[in-house]
Write a structure and sequence with these properties.
Layout (H helix, E strand, L loop, with lengths): L9 E12 L5 E16 L3 H6 L8 E7 L9 E4 L2 E10 L6 E8 L3
């Protein structure tokens, strides 16, 4: 069964670090948009949390997007008002249709 476009029902923005300078010429790290894509954002269910070997943070999400090869754990994504650090990039190695992003909420 292939990737159903109907399950990609949320817009997320993938961001990468962009170097720049602040007002006094000091280096500053800012974020720029790599892509805005349709995604399926899934929070762990109670069953997933109980099956895990360790505690699952309630701030963890799994985001499925169409296949991309340019996303890395050095990036982050935003979904609504939430910003998530990408912790792992898991490509679909069988059908090459999607990429799963394991993310954690950035507080602050």
């Amino acid at each position: 069964m292939g990737l159903n476009a109907g399950t990609l029902n949320a817009r997320v923005v993938i961001q990468q670090r962009a170097s720049g300078q602040d007002a006094v010429g000091q280096p500053s790290a800012t974020w720029s948009t790599l892509a805005t894509v349709w995604a399926n954002v899934r929070h762990p269910t109670g069953n997933e949390a109980m099956r895990a070997d360790k505690d699952i943070s309630i701030n963890a999400v799994r985001v499925r997007i169409r296949r991309r090869t340019d996303v890395t754990p050095a990036m982050r994504l935003t979904h609504g008002s939430a910003t998530y650090q990408i912790k792992a990039v898991l490509p679909d190695t069988q059908r090459l249709e999607f990429t799963d992003l394991l993310c954690e909420l950035i507080n602050g």
